[in-house]
């Protein structure tokens, strides 16, 4: 098959890395694959994997006509059997482009919520069983595709080599987080909270926290880092926070760490590197991954909402800092789980079956047009709600509508 894989960007994040990993695995299985995405910091990984790459325009938001035109043009040139979009903007570009340039679409959402404006008549893959159950009744197929991990590429590496590359001492105690510093799911807010919690804690050993990533809420993390530097722990050398920004290859950050915290695909990559993992969620959720806690994550994904009822992030890190044997034990447990459950080859087989299903499915043109109109209307409503929420409120008041 000819497959056009469309990540929403090439900034470091779990969804983007999963898209690249899947594209490379599908190519290795004999398919002709290209990546169509705006250029970004992890573009070297696309080239490293030997994937054909075509640059997409950077989306401007809203009804991005330029992105839709570019996608339609590339579909006409490449003539893919399947266009596989990851997350919202390339999916909506595909919906707009499909009017002038019909094509077969499969959508993947690795996020922890599903936007209601995505087209409901095409196959959708989601990352957790809970999300899949929530999409029951949707006209298009819904398939569970847990975040796939390349356990060979993301394998435990040499800690000393990684630390030397990052300018860290061999005997340092290093905590790391890798991912987008975004408002979505309070990712950046959680990182900022962790920095402040460590700044105020009684730390059993001096610590360095590596923060790899950027995003629309990076300033909140930078503010927390400045506060940490001015805190007693910062002034007295017990806590150093290093903001690395986007890195072209996050593997050395994982390798350098003694402990990692994070969510989603980033959490799984930490596990693949045999690092003990503290799962980060929103609204104050923190929980250590152990054989006793794992079941909830197998169902809900590596995320949480609201306090877990256990220790906070600083307390969890402090406990692990003085338990090297437990760090090794938990790291081995996570690595074993990734190899047995989240292998890329299994995910590629799921996608191949889904692609064949989509290619064999017949949809009347009128039904496809109705689905496209529904999707675009919902997306327009979403953009209005984001840009001018008062307009929606006024409309509800004038029409007597609720909700």
Characterize the structure shown.
The protein has two domains: 2-148 and 344-397, Rossmann fold; 159-341, Glycogen Phosphorylase B (Rossmann fold), CATH 3.40.50.2000. The protein has helices at 14-28, 43-48, 65-78, 88-97, 129-134, 159-166, 187-200, 218-230, 232-235, 251-256, 264-272, 294-300, 313-321, 324-341, 344-360, 365-387, 389-399, and strands spanning 2-6, 32-37, 52-55, 82-86, 105-109, 124-126, 142-144, 173-178, 207-212, 239-245, 259-262, 277-280, 286-288. Helix 1 packs across helix 15, helix 3 packs across helix 4 and helix 11 (264-272) crosses helix 14. The chain contains 17 helices and 13 strands. Strands 3-2-1-4-5-6-7 form a seven-stranded parallel beta sheet, with helices on both faces. The longest helix is centred in the last third of the chain and has 23 residues, at 365-387. It is α/β, with parallel strands linked by helices and 403 residues long. 47% of the residues lie in helices and 15% in strands.
Brief characterization of the structure:
By secondary structure, the chain is α/β, with parallel strands linked by helices. It is built from 17 helices and 13 strands.
């Amino acid at each position: 098959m000819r497959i056009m894989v469309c990540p929403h960007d090439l900034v470091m994040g779990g969804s983007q890395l999963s898209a690249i990993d899947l594209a490379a695995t599908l190519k290795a299985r004999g398919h002709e694959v290209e990546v169509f995405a705006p250029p970004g910091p992890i573009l070297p990984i696309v080239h490293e994997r030997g994937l054909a790459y075509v640059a997409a325009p950077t989306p401007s938001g809203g009804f991005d006509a330029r992105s839709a035109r570019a996608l339609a043009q590339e579909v006409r040139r490449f003539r893919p059997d399947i266009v596989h979009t990851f997350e919202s903007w390339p999916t909506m570009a595909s919906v707009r482009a499909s009017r002038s340039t019909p094509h077969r679409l499969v959508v993947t959402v690795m996020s922890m919520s599903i936007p209601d404006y995505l087209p409901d008549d095409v196959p959708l893959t989601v990352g957790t069983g809970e999300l899949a159950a929530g999409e029951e009744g949707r006209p298009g197929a819904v398939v569970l595709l847990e975040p796939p991990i390349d356990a060979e590429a993301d394998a435990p590496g040499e800690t000393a080599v990684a630390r030397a590359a990052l300018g860290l001492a061999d005997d340092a105690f290093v905590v790391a987080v890798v991912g987008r510093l975004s408002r979505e799911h309070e990712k950046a807010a959680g990182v900022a909270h962790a920095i402040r919690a460590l700044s105020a804690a009684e730390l059993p050993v001096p610590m360095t926290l590596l923060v790899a990533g950027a995003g629309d809420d990076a300033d909140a993390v930078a503010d927390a880092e400045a506060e940490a530097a001015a805190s007693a722990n910062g002034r007295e050398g017990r806590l150093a926070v290093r903001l690395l920004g986007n890195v072209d290859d996050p593997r050395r950050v994982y390798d350098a760490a003694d402990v990692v915290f994070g969510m989603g695909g980033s959490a799984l990559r930490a596990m693949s590197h045999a690092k003990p993992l503290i799962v980060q969620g929103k609204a104050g959720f923190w929980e250590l991954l152990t054989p006793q806690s794992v079941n909830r994550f197998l169902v809900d994904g590596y995320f949480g909402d609201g306090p877990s009822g256990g220790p906070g992030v600083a307390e969890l890190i402090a406990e692990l800092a003085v338990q090297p044997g437990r760090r090794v034990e938990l790291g081995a447990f996570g690595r074993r789980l990734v190899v047995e459950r989240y292998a890329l080859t299994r995910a590629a087989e799921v996608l191949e079956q889904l692609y064949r299903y989509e290619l064999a499915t017949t949809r009347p043109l009128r039904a496809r047009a109705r689905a496209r109109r529904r999707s675009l209307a919902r997306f327009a409503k979403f953009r209005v709600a984001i840009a001018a929420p008062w307009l929606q409120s006024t409309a509800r008041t004038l029409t007597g509508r609720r909700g």
